[in-house]
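Forum > Structural Biology > Help requests

Title: Can anyone predict the 3D structure of UDP-glucuronosyltransferase 1-3?

Hi all, first post here. I have the sequence for UDP-glucuronosyltransferase 1-3 but no way to get a structure on my laptop. I'd be grateful if someone could post the structure tokens.
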Amino acid sequence: VFTDPILMCGPIISEYLSVPSVYFLRGFPCGMDSEATQCPNPPSYVPRLFLNNSDRMTFAQRLKNMLVRVLEFVYCQPLVAQFEELACEIFQKKVTATDLLSHGSVWLMRYDFVFEFPRPVMPNMVFIGGINCGQKK
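Reply #1:
Sure, ran it for you. Structure tokens for UDP-glucuronosyltransferase 1-3 below:
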């Protein structure tokens, strides 16, 4: 199943059919991509999405980064709750969004370190940055 996993329908279908899934995405809010792939994601090193921090953060920026990471557990749960409910109903067992995403075979990430900060990645994460860039005039 080739899907953008933000809405979680693709991962649910691929798990239900027991077929491999390929995820095509820009990035996940809440760091769920790192969590699902078991990729190291230390808040003192990796800037959180939408904070506009670089990989060289001051102490205050690192503290803010850590606080945002802690708050992600609170504000991200409502985003995936309905899909977790649907998955529990389909599979007749407790399933989390991270469990569903962890079965992704390949993650096609639409960004590149040229435009982003360096961070740890897993071997099944492939960078295909630049496909959304417009032609220079």
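The beta strands are 2-3, 21-25, 104-109, 125-127. The two ends are 36 Å apart (CA to CA).
Shout if anything looks off.
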